[in-house]
Structure formats: structure tokens, C-alpha cells
Amino acid sequence: MTFSELNTPLRTIMTPGPVEVDPRVLRALSTPILGQFDPAFTAIMNDVMGMIQQVFQTKNQWAFPIDGTSRSGLEAVLASVIEPGDKVLIPIYGRFGHLLTEISERYGADIHLLHCEWGEVFDPDVIIAEMKKVKPKIVALVHGETSTGCMQPLEEVGRACREQDILFIVDAVATIGGVDVQSDNWYIDAVIGGNQKCLSVPSGNAPITYNERVEKVLNARKKVERGIATDSELAEKKMHAPIRSNYLDLAQLQDYWSPRRLNHHTEATSMLYALYEGLRIVLDEGLETRFARHQYHEQALIEGIEGMGLELFGDRRWKLPTVTCIKVPEGIDAESVRSMMLQQFGVEIASSFGPLHGKIWRIGTMGYSCRKENVLFVLASLEACLIRHGVKIPAGQALQATLDFYSRD
Question: Phi, psi (5° rounding) for residue 225?
């Protein structure tokens, strides 16, 4: 059996992730391979750490990527801080709060949940009141919930966690690099980001950062592998159970990213090159400028959607700037419209999950995909496909409303 040469179709990807990869990142992926302990490569590692610190707005010593998808970053942090029986409070307002729960359960946590309707977020006072009642070791919370297009306020919760000596762990996969995430100012102890969304890097590693409060937990559980441990490390007795995962053990990964460079795994060299370039592009644009760009094209998209006569899902007060959710018109097959957009226009948007499946479409304006031509194209293709499905909409008004918005500058 023979196989044809790889030749993927060109797409305009307007989902909440993955998104289109910046061409400069694609070029970086072709950079020649170096050995992981080559001084030229360890210098790149150090630069990546420094850039993560800046993008995450932190002075934390520890800021590095986990090799794997964004989920690997979430699991590495949770696996490394949760000991069996630890109380973990997880407020859930969409799919990915459930993911934090799934991971925490597998590491033996005593789970305490708060729920609100999908499409809403929590009043911080509700979370804080539950913290006082439960007295957890950890609060784990999603910042930007892509399943609902909502964004949870963090600062008040973070301050209360610090006052009550609770570790605050935040999933910022959908927001880092596109929305303001102030790790230090919001009292976040560990933050997990994602490549494939606002950073416009292929999925394959997950940048994280954590502070000395988390490091203290890691050091109490640290176990160095027998094949590379020193005699003193082998003889050392720990009061706490070792981290259950080997691959996702932050204590060992910390040694790998430290000047000690203690071998743990073979680094995903090309993915580190890609992350390097993605982070460099973010910082070259400037965080404030980048955040403003995402809000600008978000508003342009909304103008077109409303010009088409469609209704947004969720309250604008807590809308996630990088994801716009649209209610599917009554009687319309949501998947049929999505399929036609992909087949006829090469434009991809997303459905949702759980109680919202088939009820909303989700359009991502993230990173490199967050551009004027993409916004205009997704509106044009959505309008055309809705008309083909018999939806009565004012033809042409979506693009005119968005062009009017863009022409105001």
C-alpha cells in the first residue's frame, strides 16, 4: 500500500482553538534540531522562561512549558499539589470546570463543587463564602470558559485565597496572550496557559507558572528518580507522599528547567522553538496593544452578527473577548450550517458541549486568526449558509455593519 504526499486543505479557522498558526511560528518549527543540553539550546530554554514570565505578568522564578497539550499543564499542576484527601473547591460554569474536577478526582482529592448556569459566571462573594465554609487547600477555577464564551472575574477570589492561605490555581488556557491575565496582581499561585489559542502556536506544550507557595508543596513531595539521584537524595525521607505522576511531576521538571538541568525527559525541541517565536511575537506586539486588538475585532464581529439579526448568547458583562457565542435560530440544524461553511467556504466555526450542544455556535477571534479579513469572511460564509438553510435575514447587512465599524478609524 502506498500513501500520498501530505497535502492538507487551506482553512480559515475561527474556532475557540485550535486557531491558525502565525507563519513566523511555522518557520520556527523548521529550525535545525539541537541537543537538549547544548548550551545554545539551554539558552533558548532560559529565554522562553523569561518570556513566559512577561506574558503571564509575573515575577515568579518558575515559568516553563509542560511537553504535551494544555491538558498536560493542568494535570501537571493539579497532580503535583494534590495529595489524597486534600480538599479542592471547584466552581463550575462550563465544560472545563468539569475537566478540573475529573483530574482532581483521579489524584484522590476531596472535591467540593459550586455550580451556576452555563452562560453565567459566579459572583466572587459566592465563591468566597463557600471557601470559608469548606476551608479547602486549593481553589481551582477557569478564567475563560470557551464552552460558554464567559470570563470569570479572578482578583477578589485570588485576594481571599491569599488571606485564607488557600492555593489558587487558574486555567487561563483560553485567555493568555489575548486577554489581560495578571498572575501576581490577582494573587494566583499557579497559572496554566495554552499554545493553540491566543498564542497561535500548534498544540504540543503548555506554558505554566507558579510561585513559592506552590514550590513549598512540591519540595515537601519531591522524589528524584533512582537512576539519577545523589546518595543524599536517595537517603532523604519525606513527610509527604511523592507526586503520583512521573511524567507530570513538577518537582522533577523544576530540576530539569533549573541550572542543574537534571535529566527528566527528552525535550520537544521543535515545539520549544515554536513557543519561543509565539511568545516573542506577543511581546513584540505589546500586551496592551494585543489585548486591544482582540477587543477591536470582537466588536467588529458582534456588529456583523447583530446586523444579520442573530442573537448573542450570554450576558455582555462577562463575555470572553476571544470567543463569541451565537444562538442557533429556531428550527435550524446547527451542524448542517457548520458543515456547509467548511465544505463550501473552508471556514470552520465550533459547536458547543453538554447542555449547549446544537443550541449555539462559537466563533473564536484568537491570536493570528483575529484579523479583519477573517472576521469579514466568517460573516460572509455564515450569512450565505444561513440563507441556503432558509433563515430570513437581511442579506448583506452583516458585512455592511462590520465594514461601517472598521471604517470609523
Answer: -60, 145
